[in-house]
Amino acid sequence: MKTLKKIGIWMDHSMAHITEFDSEIEETKIITSDFTFQDKVETLQRSESEMHNKEQQKQTTYYKNLAQIIKNFDEVILFGPTDAKVELYNQLKADHQFDAIKIEVKNTDKMSDKEQRNFIDDYFKRFDFKV
């Protein structure tokens, strides 16, 4: 029987904390969006539409970076306090290379690293039945 690769991603629009379930090493990888407050200020001084275009481009790159990681897993839980998880989920569902991956979205508040790890462990352990 194949062992399923599972991952939990706590995310908002600025960063994602990626934690693999059942990994030997309890390590969280962090991916950040390149759209900074400084970018917002600089582009907003020139034009609001330019600021929105730049933000959209950076957000798309951020989601593509996360998608590259997600495609190596069988089950994914996206969670966090903002709509970023839903935006990423919608992009993944529109791409057929993610059809075989079980992806679920949950709303949560801001969490410490330990709370994120516990959430991921609790979420995936609900479905791990050993006979």
From the alpha-carbon coordinates, what is the Rg to the nearest angstrom? 16 Å
Helical content band: 40-55%
Largest sheet: 5 strands, mixed
Could you tell me the strand content as a percent range? 15-25%
**Shape, principal axes of CA atoms:** globular
> N-to-C SSE series?
EEEHHEHEH
Average pLDDT rating: 83
User: What structural class do the secondary elements suggest?
Assistant: alpha/beta
Total beta strand runs: 5
**Sheet with the most strands: spatial strand order:** 3-2-1-4-5
Cα distance spanning the termini: 13 Å
- Number of helical runs? 4
Low-pLDDT sequence parts: none
Describe it for me?
The structure is a single chain. With 131 residues, the protein is an alpha/beta fold. Helix content is 44%, strand content 22%. It has helices at 37-46, 48-70, 84-94, 113-125; strands at 6-11, 15-20, 28-32, 75-80, 102-107. Strand 4, helix 3 (84-94) and strand 5 form a beta-alpha-beta unit. The chain is globular and about 50 Å long.
Give a quick summary of the entry:
This protein is α/β, with parallel strands linked by helices. The chain has helices spanning 37-46, 48-70, 84-94, 113-125, and strands at residues 6-11, 15-20, 28-32, 75-80, 102-107.
Write the topology of this structure.
Elements: E1 6-11, E2 15-20, E3 28-32, H1 37-46, H2 48-70, E4 75-80, H3 84-94, E5 102-107, H4 113-125
Parallel strand pairs: 1-4, 4-5
Antiparallel strand pairs: 1-2, 2-3
